[in-house]
Amino acid sequence: MAMFKPSQPMMARLRLTTKQVNGGYYKGNRTGSMGYFAKNGSYVINWKKVRTYVVPENLADFKVRCSRLATKTRLLASDLTFANQLTPFVTKRMAPTKGKYTREIEKNGRTVIVERAFGAKDYLDMWASDNGQEVLEQERLEQESAASEAASLQEPAASEAASRQ
């Protein structure tokens, strides 16, 4: 009996990330409606669909770290309230992320590396690397079936040769 181990793409369907959990940390990825239009033409907001961040516990006790503190300048009250808000951070000093799946194309005598789609061969390679035990078991079963086929082909040939003598 072959073992079954789910691969990463299959595990991705389990609702574990912040964007996939219903009513969890972050709702939505800026697509879809936030409500519906009533019969009279007014728009009714469905607050369960509104994108919100869940505020962490003990946010009031959170110590503010600010670059202005390092220079020992006085912080204004507005600076403190701004620092306590949850804001996204995106760095400007990041090199472009290189894709794992690329191919080389020759343009104007130069070789250019271009990203390509995740193909079926890539999926099978990834599955085989993640499920090594199952792959080894499958190869063993294939070798046994090939050996039994070879033995069954040799038996009629041997019995045929014996009947000729």
Number of strands: 4
- Helix and strand content put the structural class at alpha+beta
End-to-end span in angstroms?
44 Å
As laid out across the biggest beta sheet, the strand order is 1-2
Number of helices: 5
Could you give the order of the helices and strands? HEEHHEEHH
Oligomer: single chain
Largest sheet: 2 strands, antiparallel
Rg, rounded, reads: 31 Å
Helical residue percent band = 25-40%
Low-pLDDT stretches are: 67-78
Kindly estimate the percentage of residues that lie in beta strands according to DSSP: 5-15%
The global form is elongated
Q: Whole-number average pLDDT? A: 73
Write the layout of secondary structure elements.
Blueprint: H1 8-11, E1 35-37, E2 43-45, H2 67-70, H3 77-84, E3 102-107, E4 110-115, H4 120-130, H5 132-164
Antiparallel strand pairs: 1-2, 3-4
Structure description:
The chain is α+β, with helices and mostly antiparallel strands. It has five helices and four strands. A two-stranded antiparallel ribbon has the order 1-2. A hairpin with a 5-residue loop joins strand 1 (35-37) and strand 2. The chain is elongated. The model is unreliable at 67-78 (pLDDT under 50).
